[in-house]
Amino acid sequence: MRTVPNSLHDEAASRLREQIFAGSLPPGSFLDEAALCERLAISRTPLREALKVLVAEGLLRHEPRRGCFVAEVTERDLDEIFPVIALLEGRAAHEATCRAGDADVAALEVLHLRLQQCAAEGRITDYYVANHAIHEAFITLANNRWLAQVIGDLRKILRLARLQQLHAPGRLQQSLGEHLAVFDALKRRDSDAAESAMRTHLLHQREALRDVARNQQSRLNP
Fold it and tell me: Cβ contacts of residue 71 below 8 Å, gap of 6+?
């Protein structure tokens, strides 16, 4: 099967991925190939290669004779994904704790101080950024490319849901406490405790999302 230059379909896949995550291509929306070719200034061949990439990542679904649609994440999907990503990120925390040196601990200290400041000031958007940096730091320290790849794939799916778990009552401080527990375990070089604390952190995220969903429903249906 003939392939097209990576630069064309990779760039198209990257641009479409960004539009999906930004919400300009919302869940459930149909991808019009002709319109996308014009917008991205590419031919159908590299576009279709890009769509195959995004289908493989789970960001799009392909329906025979209909085309591609942006994937939609259901509550069942979240129930199934969070226990898996909790196991994976827990393992990443375990391996990171085994490998972290003094310089790594110092760098993580800076990130956690930033996280604490964001929480103290109620800056949720900045807290999300610092939170993401900390999770990425643990994955990097784990130095396990298979863990990193699978976690990255699952995170892409979760981004489709545009999750806002920190808006659940009390969740911001709870999340901060969970992060500090993971970091404390790492500083003590207790890899099992770091793994358990990270798993708890991810599972509590799912519970917080349920609270957010329930609150939204109660506002819509008093």
Answer: 27, 58, 59, 60, 61, 157, 160
The answer to whether 92 and 138 are in contact (CB under 8 A) is: yes
60-81: per-residue pLDDT in tens? 999 998 999 999 888 899 999 9
Residue 140 sits at the vertex; the CA angle it makes with 139 and 141, to the nearest 5 degrees, is 90
Judge if pTM exceeds 0.85.
no
CB burial string 66-88: b at 16+ within 10 A, e below: eebbbbebeeebbeebbeebbeb
Residues facing 40 on adjacent strands: none
Residue the block writes with tokens 């892409």: 156
State residue 217's pLDDT score. Answer: 56
